[in-house]
Specification:
The protein is mainly α. The protein is built from 29 helices and eight strands.
Amino acid sequence: MTDAGGGTRIEEIRGAAHTGPGSQHNHFYGSDQPPMARPKVDPWRVALEQRSWLKQRFVAPAGFGDAQQRLARVGTTVLLAGPAGSGRRTAAVMLLHGPDDEDTPFIEMSFSMDKENDDVPDPEEGDRLLLDLSAVSEEAYPRAQELLYSFWGKVEAANARLVAVLPFSDEELLHPRLRQLVAAIGRPRATAVLRRHLECDRIRWEPDALEEGELRSLDTFAMRDIQRFANLVAQARTADPSGGMAGWIRQALGALSNRSAEVTKEVAALDSGPQRALLFVAAMMAGAPADAVFLHTDRLLRLVEHTPDEKPQLERADLAERLKALPVEVDGHGRIRFTSLAYDGAVRAHFWTYFPGLRDRFGAWVEDAVDQPHPALGLQERRTLVERFTEQSLRTSEWPLLHRLAGEWAADPRRASEAMAVLELGLTHERHAAGFRAKIYEWATPVGSVQPNLARVLARACGEVMARTHPDQALVRLHHLARRTRGSSESDVREALFELARHDRRLYAKLLARLWDGLESRRDATPDIRLFLGLVNPPPTSWVPSDALTRGWAGVLAAVPPHWWESTVGQWLSAAASAPGPTARRLMRVLVDAARGRGDLLSRLYLVARDWAAAAGQPEEQSGRADVAARFWQEIDDAQGIELSDPPRVGRIEERYR
């Protein structure tokens, strides 16, 4: 596997609200805490919660049962086909999330036209694999099929399971040798999906509230739009609790409809630049204080080089008068809100779509707004602004600007929260997530060291966001960061790396292999030596990967002076003292086997054990440590072919190893 790409183990899909293609955004920030001081987010717990969320709302489509039966057999590959908008990815996730093994993780494989980025590890016994090809172009489809074909036999040989989501339902585009693997699914009933979502949100399903035409319109929605529609119904209920389901439904239908013509008419009716700027800023800052919207409208006008109003301030129209011409009002808390549900999103989309020449200015305006110390625009408002800007930039593929801003903000300790907002949305985006993963790899692998603040933010993005869906790739990037980070953020990066690796045996073994490669082939192995000693302290007593650990220890013992590793050996002996007998023996054998053939190293291990045993406190601890030391010395004797007629004693062995 190459560093920049590869297969990845995941516990869940992209985001908590997926019922089909698309991205879902989940944010884990406190109100005004400094971003790096907030409680850690456990990606594994988040993934489990997301999977539980999805299962509660999933409605099996036609053909799903047949795909389940086929996948029940080990060594099976299923190619899932279905019409666009039918929720193929969700169905694939639910196939791998079988009823009897809900906590079983699966591995998501990445596909890229770049040969260096789509190399994936061979499946292992019992692996569950997901390959989402739903966004693959017709041009790239033949290459994707080559990957499928290469994995078909490997999956069978490993008794693994693979589900691949096909981009086209037309089997004519699929190579004949793969057609036997296709399982076709239909489209779930839209009303059934909507009902399930509403009931999960504690909204009582009242089908009589929908007219026949409205029910029919649901059948045109993609599954991701059904989920969004249910969210809008919930928002309408919150805004108008007494409105009743019929009213909430109609508001949601209006919000979900294509409002392009409506917004175009609205913008055309505004014949002045300042009014259009006010509408745009209100949409970008909906929910922010009115005075902040007014201030940043003036700043936008300056950035787009609009001719300034020469009238004195008191002769100009005030904010209340200017808002009369817009579908906007100031609520009782002094904050800007739109009068129609989700109308602000339609306005943002309009400006980004129909004013493409101003997108770079919009970006400069967001940078300016984030950097302003204006007290009315607090941390939450700044973050929301950045999220909305990022959503539109991703929609129109302005990702180079997002990469630049994320990097610059991440390097600024004051802007870590904004950087995380960009990275989270980018890393969970259907089309651009791979580009953000590649950019993080680039940031993590400079020629020199990584800037400390940038390293800290990247560690969090990898450990909390990327690890939810692509933990293997997160591990690779964290390893590179840990090699190249110095100063105040070094411990943060190492902790994120170790936490990710220790959570999963596969990832632990992967990191051990990478560290060994560094010890064996890199000119400067010092970073990997330090990382190895940190990773194995404490040792993995519940699972001892003896061969990999022995190789790593052998490299460390031979490469650096004893004072580097003596304390870690002491920790291993302490772990052996409290572990069951077989585990304790495996731990001691790893150390002895790593020094086998090196009398000087074996002598030093003996002395470390002697000093460790002598440092015991209470009599009970003294007895336990003496026993472990004696067994360890016996392992050292066995490694050298020495047979003693009597059990090892400190005095006798001490003479031998002086």
